[in-house]
Amino acid sequence: MSNSIDFYFDIISPYSYIAYKKILRTQNIKFNYKPILLGGLHKLEGITAPAFNTHKMKNMKNDCELVAYKNEIKFSWNSKFPINSLYMMRGYLVLEDDKKIHYLDSFFNAYWKDNLDLNEKENIIKLLENLEIDSKHFFEAIESENVKDKLKKFTLDAFEKNVFGAPTFIVNKKIFWGQDRLEYALDEILK
Amino acid sequence: MSNSIDFYFDIISPYSYIAYKKILRTQNIKFNYKPILLGGLHKLEGITAPAFNTHKMKNMKNDCELVAYKNEIKFSWNSKFPINSLYMMRGYLVLEDDKKIHYLDSFFNAYWKDNLDLNEKENIIKLLENLEIDSKHFFEAIESENVKDKLKKFTLDAFEKNVFGAPTFIVNKKIFWGQDRLEYALDEILK
């Protein structure tokens, strides 16, 4: 039996942001943060993301706004959605453990609450400075083969565990897909 | 302001079945049943249904079983899923109004509760007989151009209203996609 919940996420995914905010409200449950490149995973799965279908995209925006509102989560649709999250997700991997959660908080909020353009290097540098992360070192590190391979490996690991989207929760080898299913994942671990 | 909820469904969709069962439990809310051919809608949208992706399909089965269990809805994954729902959905259109809800109940239950093979004409005839529907007339009617066009028109109407999946609820021109969102549709109409 699992004593923790695996949480697969990508910062680019608005439902991952909502799930993350819900996770912060849980108590006495351990979550293992599993960063993936959602675009890469979709490619492995042969899935077209909702962002690339007009009606699905429109619905996703409305739905996220509504779910966030109902759950009292501050949310603002990012006007530059979607962007490539490769650098953001590699960035998560280069950080010391004690910086990771602050980084996640900062980048999730910047993108899904404050409508920041995270294609702009200046904006990223500002966020890193606020976190006291050396941006020169950060930008060098995310270009290293080691880090590139790590994100690929994490994404491939997710694929091999039948994960096909984000957010996904895994408890007792059972897959729960979507922020709507965090509740079921919690039921599973508490039963 | 709407005084009723439009409910877009296809009998082939397990989440439509779950939504339908939830609808039966609501009180004092009028639902307008909007039959569509989900396969046709997906084609118009350029969407690959989850049934045609291995991991999504596996997840859909587990998820439906879990959602049904949590909501105390009797459910059994159909071992012949997916099948073409063209005849079933055309069949809904040829019936008198007072027969429609019984037909729906019978076919939803046969497919998603009793694991009946609805590719088998014999099974369909048996269901029709139980409903005192003349099966000879039924099979003739579903081949008529008028009925073919009607289902196409209903599906196209849904597409033009930005419906891209089933079940979908529309209230006050707002779209709520998925059985998970019936609650929000009810909130919308009751506010």
Could you describe the 3D structure shown?
The structure is a homodimer of 191-residue chains. Chain A is of the alpha+beta class and 191 residues long. Chain A has one domain: 3-Layer(aba) Sandwich (Glutaredoxin), CATH 3.40.30. The first copy, chain A, is 54% helix and 10% strand. Chain A has nine helices and four strands. Chain A has a four-stranded mixed β-sheet, sandwiched between helices. Chain A is globular. Chains A and B meet through helix 3 and strand 4 of A and helix 3 and strand 4 of B.
Summarize it:
Chain A is built from nine helices and four strands. Chain A has helices at 14-24, 38-45, 54-70, 86-94, 97-112, 121-130, 135-141, 145-160, 182-190, and strands at residues 4-9, 30-35, 168-171, 174-177.
Give the total of beta strands of chain A: 4
Order of neighbouring strands in the sheet with most strands of chain A? 2-1-3-4
Uncertain segments of chain A? none
Instruction: Tally the structural domains of chain A.
Output: 1
Structural class of chain A: alpha+beta
Q: Tell me the fraction of residues in β-strands of chain A, as a range.
A: 5-15%
Helicity level of chain A, as a percent range?
A: 40-55%
Q: What's the CATH topology name of chain A?
A: Glutaredoxin
Q: What is the N-to-C order of secondary-structure elements of chain A (H for helix, E for strand)?
A: EHEHHHHHHHEEH
pLDDT averaged residue by residue of chain A: 96
The backbone outline of chain A, from C-alpha atoms, is globular
